[in-house]
Amino acid sequence: MNKTKKIIGLGLGMAVLVTSMGLAFAADTQSSASDTSKPRSQKVEMFRGKGEGQKSQVLTNLVTAGTITADQQKALQEAMKPANGTKKTIKEALDSLVTAGTITQVQEDTIIKAYEDEKAKLEAERQKKLEELAAQKGITVDELKAQMEKERENRGAGVNGDFKGRGGNKHQSVLAALVTGGTITADQQKAVQEAMKPANGTKKTIKEALDSLVTAGTITQAQEDTIIKAYEDEKAKLEAERQKKLEELAAQKGITVDELKAQMENGRKGKGHNFDGKADTDTSK
Known about the structure:
Order of helices and strands: HHHHHHHHHHH
Shape: elongated
Largest sheet: none
Radius of gyration: 23 Å
Oligomer: single chain
Number of helices: 11
Helix content: 55-70%
Number of strands: 0
Structural class: mainly alpha
């Protein structure tokens, strides 16, 4: 059993890395394509997928450089918060501070430029990672993007409750490890994977999917119990890892985990509210 768990962990770790990159990119392309009401350069969409931390870091760097003060940083962060799901440009957010005398016009121009430079850097890094991953897979970047988009569309379509949002790779990794450990055969693995496929968008539990195989004599009751336990163990492990990451990120931000979750939920409901950093005279991205 220890051997099985180690194999499961290794397989899941690799799957999480590739799938996470795919989902992050897919979310980015979805938001980009779905909202054309303003030029992308005008939207308050800073480093989508990077969160508030990236936006704050740009301002922190400007404080360190003496471009703005700590008080001005706080005022900027407050002005940049999305209001009730509305979208505004970075210039619209900063103009009010210039009018109020909180920052100067020169400072506004410098802040916008800082966001532009950082965003260009992040996009270059993202493109490099896409090229590297595409090369590893032996496909083009466009083909990789198409795969990632398909993953996004199929996200959450698997068996209800099993690694929700992580895609079919989780099923395959767990089952492959059970085959390696001698718990099930390769033929049984194929039968289990087929039984777990969602039918016409419906959702079913792992037990509901496996009960039919037990009834048909494809797997034994003991095997069904072992398979379910393997999924439960790995799901608990992934949830523990996620909780740890949430606690670390919350500590970095100086807030509670509940407050962090609330921020993430607001971000999910109102995609595209983080600052883009482009001046509204620039319509390229």
